[in-house]
Design a protein that fits this description.
alpha+beta, four-stranded antiparallel β-sheet, globular, seven-stranded antiparallel β-sheet
């Protein structure tokens, strides 16, 4: 493998009053190709590929994989992210979906990281009202203001250039996807943040594609398959929501696309987690400032 991996880890915590940034630059983890006395193929063989019907940890959802994909457990996902792609350790996931046709260690290798956020049941009442072009402009304006503060603190900015794929929501299946094109100040190339979301009774399944912008067309072609085989289990589906007993999330679809927050007041949850492995970013959420959400909640 001819990768020259860089690592960048940024954990961003924002409050309603003052945007703040915390970042670390960990010691690079060894990649699979540098492990002594072990070829790339031998290292890949140590990852247990799982096929067919997969029940995710905690039984919250299932993957009915077709012949084009396999699944890695959370433990093997951690190994791929750290040993294979050279990212820092410590990322909790529900596993990863990998295409069979391409080695994840190839330059054009990619995968989809699965996680679950239980902020509560997300109402989709605003689905038909969202102007995604206007939403993008607000996100870009607020993002640039936040970048000014980060640059003052000596950190690189991360700018949203536009939709690589505009948001699309299916109200029947309660599934949606969108893609953003992003660029860090110190990066030569732009990067792809492709997000797939499946809404459930008490939270949302987050599927984030780890890929380069050059992989956009491939991801777009595969997204319908991924949406089709990812579903909550009985009792956890969107239709199972009980307003008398279940928690309602403090935000709707617009805020979900913009980044999602923990609550309407108080501190923001950790919105941005970014890993850079060669040309690949893992971006869970997007760094946004509190001003956008204040405007959003006033309108609501």
């Amino acid at each position: 493998m001819k990768h020259h991996l860089r690592q960048l880890f940024a954990a961003v915590a924002l409050s309603l009053a003052v945007p703040a940034l915390a970042a670390t630059s960990p010691t690079p983890a060894p990649t699979a190709s540098t492990q002594p006395h072990q070829t790339t193929e031998q290292w890949l063989a140590t990852l247990k590929q799982q096929h067919g019907n997969i029940t995710l940890p905690s039984g919250i959802a299932t993957l009915q994989l077709n012949d084009d994909f396999y699944y890695l457990s959370p433990a093997d996902t951690e190994r791929l992210l750290t040993e294979g792609w050279g990212n820092p350790p410590g990322h909790k996931t529900l596993g990863m979906i990998i295409p069979k046709a391409i080695s994840p260690l190839a330059d054009n290798g990619w995968g989809v990281i699965v996680s679950y956020k239980n902020d509560g049941h997300i109402s989709d009442d605003d689905a038909a009202k969202i102007d995604y072009a206007d939403l993008l402009k607000q996100m870009q304006a607020d993002d640039e203001e936040n970048n000014k503060e980060r640059r003052k603190q000596g950190y690189a900015g991360l700018s949203l250039l536009g939709w690589a794929e505009p948001p699309s929501y299916d109200q029947g299946s309660h599934k949606m996807y969108w893609a953003r094109e992003l660029k860090a100040d110190d990066a030569q190339q732009t990067t792809l943040n492709y997000s797939i979301r499946v809404l459930g009774r008490e939270g949302v399944l987050e599927l984030n594609a780890v890929a380069a912008m050059a992989d956009l067309q491939t991801i777009k072609q595969e997204t319908p398959k991924i949406l089709a085989f990812t579903n909550f289990t009985d009792g956890n589906r969107y239709a199972d929501y009980d307003s008398k007993t279940d928690k309602l999330a403090p935000y709707g679809l617009a805020a979900l696309v913009a980044g999602g927050i923990a609550a309407k007041a108080g501190l923001f949850a950790k919105i941005g987690v970014m890993l850079l492995a060669l040309k690949k970013f893992i971006v869970v959420g997007l760094v946004v400032v509190a001003g956008f959400f204040r405007k959003l909640f006033k309108r609501q």
